User: Fold Endo-1,4-beta-xylanase 5 from Arabidopsis thaliana.
Amino acid sequence: MKNINNGFFLCMLLLLWCFVHSGISIDPFSPSDSLKTECVMKPPRSSETKGLLQFSRSVEDDSDEEWKIDGSGSIREMTQRIQLHEGNIYSFSAWVKLREGNNKKVGVVFRTENGRFVHGGEVRAKKRCWTLLKGGIVPDVSGSVDIFFESDDKEAKISASDVSLKQFSKQEWKLKQDQLIEKIRKSKVRFEVTYQNKTAVKGAVISIEQTKPSFLLGCAMNFRILQSEGYRNWFASRFKITSFTNEMKWYTTEKERGHENYTAADSMLKFAEENGILVRGHTVLWDDPLMQPTWVPKIEDPNDLMNVTLNRINSVMTRYKGKLTGWDVVNENVHWDYFEKMLGANASSSFYNLAFKLDPDVTMFVNEYNTIENRVEVTATPVKVKEKMEEILAYPGNMNIKGAIGAQGHFRPTQPNLAYMRSALDTLGSLGLPIWLTEVDMPKCPNQEVYIEEILREAYSHPAVKGIIIFAGPEVSGFDKLTLADKYFNNTATGDVIDKLLKEWQQSSEIPKIFMTDSENDEEEVSLLHGHYNVNVSHPWMKNMSTSFSLEVTKEMGQRQVVRVVINA
Assistant:
């Protein structure tokens, strides 16, 4: 036996007896499976077997067998392993339950040949019913791995059923993404153009210009945008939503107690409003003790600290009421608990309550890091972030808050684990609340542009994700991780990727879709991204025949929508 010592107690058990291409698996892209959180008496069956590496051991409800965790926290080793190949994506799934205890964390861990542990996903398991555990791994080298269950309870006795590891090539994964994007981001619109007598108009020309996309890919900005006309022009020509990196934070607006200064934030907001750019508020408070104004930690009286904290909430939220799309009310309050330690366990929940009273229409986020990007995280895991939001919404008076999850997305400079990321988004999305990626970046590295595109496409292809903000900019902005343009505003390779995705996801109003109704069918169908459009219908032979109208294409309208246009001619 080998003991694990990595800073916290882990109990693990090796999965046994593997073979290829057999059994049952969960499709990681299935809408019916992706947000599944209920505990079921019997795991549902699936006919999905393509690309499957299947574990044959399945412990059923009426069996006396169970996988027991060694009480010493040791690994019980077996010799059999699974061979994984670099460049492939492996999606893991299993139905798990507890024989003893309840509501305990159960996760999957992959141990590589060099002894490194890769955490692949986790779930809260329950007693006497089955919960779906999902995750996965993207190996950076080919080799064999051992697969373990882990639990934070040394007394845990875990039963598992239908344990599977499904292999995808990157091309297969991308194809799945594209298919899902067509379902969740677009709808087919059929135009039927007729005269008042219902006779079809042959050869009508339909021009469609998008005025407001439903899904926004945005970018953060900082105070340097006030100092550079080139930065302002570069930004306004691309992005329709932003957040300010530091300019709205408490340690910026009140460096000295009682002396508030919102000059930079106000000026940046004015620039955004003048250019039709939405602003997401970041942040009212920050639960990290090191991220307070320097004078705040010196306050020893809890009543005094409460007074200045309430003053801060009232000040910033009243000032920007109705001007922002959302707020990080208490930033990173899963990782940190400064206000809870100083003011009580319900501090965060009570601050969300006050924020809701001050601006009930704004979306309020729990905003955390290492939730979707770092699979070794033990603090702000998807399960714990979900539970924090549930705790806030359960606080008296908070049930009507427009809640949302902010997954920051500070990725390491290496191949992202897309299978883990998708499973993490599934867990967060099971709340039924919007998810935004709020601070996406990655240190400079070879293939940065490839990795960033993979990350952004993974988010865009998930039904719970409603928008993305990257922490990036041109060289003059000082964003030294995701630099999108040089000092002359010429694109970097990563900048080319962002421009490509903006064009793909947000149809430019300067390049309208133009087509002619079919002379035989007298109707035309086009696939449109969800959003708002201006539509013009005219005819090249009839100069007086023209009509224009606004059109909103939404997911709620279904996969197909019929637009009937009646021409007065």
